[in-house]
Amino acid sequence: MKTSESIVDIDRKYIWHPFTQERTAPPPLHVASAQGATLRLADGREILDMACSWWVNVHGHSHPKIAAALARQAATLEHVIFAGFTHEPAARLAEAIVNALPRPLSRVFYSDNGSTAVEVALKMAWQYWRNQGDTRRRLFFALEGGYHGDTFGAMAVGRSSGYYAPFEELLCEVRHLPFAPTWMGDEGCEEREARALAGIDALLDAHGHEAAAFLAEPLVQGASGMNMCRPQFLRAVVERMQARDIPVIFDEVMTGFGRTGTLFALEQAGVVPDLLCLSKGITGGFLPLAATVASQRIYDAFLGEDFHSAFAHGHSFTANPLGCAAGVASFALFEEEGTLERIGRINAANRNWLAEVARLPGVTRPRALGSIAAVTLGGDTSDYHAGVGAAVKAKCFERGLLIRPMGNVVYLMPPACIDPQDLRRAQDGLTAVLRETAPLYAF
Ligand SMILES: Cc1ncc(COP(=O)(O)O)c(C=O)c1O
User: Fold this and answer.
1) Left, alpha or beta for 29 (phi > 0: left; psi -120 to 50: alpha)?
2) Measured between alpha carbons, how far is 238 from 266 in angstroms, rounded to an integer?
């Protein structure tokens, strides 16, 4: 190995990065360490992580209590096959998750990441019907704009998010139901919801009897642009599904673990799904781990005397003890550090900031929930790589802020530990950048 090469040189030679056009992307930034809300680059620069590192971080980077729990676990049991074996971190984390959820959600199935949590839920719903001899349930319902991950089932239900054109012909059948977004000061919301619900009723009449499940990101559609809906809209959709006995899957991969101000978004929606997908924040953002939580009715449909009705799905690292130990430690921090209260304070500060920033030309649809604050720049577009987003990102970076716009949607999502002054600095920095970039979107 040549020691004169920098880490970035070595990276450029051997690595293929996610969601990146490798030919045109600038060299990646070498992060040497991270603490709290701050990333430290190898060249000494400090950057505030206002995107929670792809929405995984909860309490802050390198939290000493999670780090200590991991070190203890690594020295005790790093991993063991999870078919026919169990261990304390998996049992304790499942217990904590189920105790934090409403019944009938009661059984935790572990996997590795958000996409697999969704894949597991889709497969469970599909087989749930087949275990009862019903093969007419051959499609899924999902909300327009939803994003659920990059494996095949997740791509199919998320195809309207616009990321998967090359794979279109490989994806299973999904009917996308209209979504009704809303924002602060929105006056057309009720009418939009009524139109969406009428569309959903028509699709239910036509295809309800064929649906294996309905899947939604509750309250916030993350990757399609932090689009938020009112709890009553989500509730009305879910009640329609449940009235027709269509299992409901909530994808809380992004919204789970405090992101929306409650531990889970379903608490605000006031409805209980049959399957719940969790990942990202489950370990506080330390390690890849996921859980699909099933209701008793789904679980019971897989019980039988032989393997035919069992759920034939598993991953090598299912219920990895390190991930589970991080999860248990992260759960404890919610109490110890008043994480939800911290998120409540971030939300209040964000709402004040949004009221100011929404007065800037071309800044529309201010919206906030939990620790998320978002605005849309100019009109509607779903182009992930829209030039305005890239310009905002670059200018924010010059001000020491990691902000990752999605097309023309710009959002802040800091870890719960962020200092009020740092939050203010990020908000002011973004306001200044929006003023500078206004010619790109405010016509
Ligand atoms: C709502 C939602 N579901 C699923 C996923 C996929 O998770 P992962 O990237 O861990 O596979 C994501 C990722 O952003 C997500 O936001």
Assistant:
1) beta
2) 11
Distance between alpha carbon 28 and the CA centroid of its chain, in Å? 23
- Rounded to 10°, the helix 321-336/88-100 angle is 40
Centre of ligand 1 from the C-alpha of residue 332, in Å: 24
CA distances from 315 to 274, 319, 363 (A): 22, 9, 45
Q: Whose CA is nearest to atom 13 of ligand 1?
A: 149
CA distances 35 to 76, 111, 312, 335, 442, Å, are 26, 27, 40, 20, 37
Nearest CA to ligand 1 atom 16: 254
Q: Which ligand 1 atom minimizes the distance to the CA of 288?
A: 10
Element (H, E) at 71: helix 64-74
**Atom in ligand 1 nearest the alpha carbon of residue 222:** 16
The per-residue pLDDT for 215 is 98
The one-character DSSP state at 406 is B
* Alpha carbons 131 and 139: distance in angstroms, whole number: 16
Per-residue pLDDT at 265: 98
pTM over 0.85: yes
Asked if residues 305 and 130 have their Cβ atoms less than 8 Å apart, the reply is no
For ligand 1, say whether the CB of 422 is within 6 Å of any of its atoms.
no
For residues 151-175, average pLDDT: 92
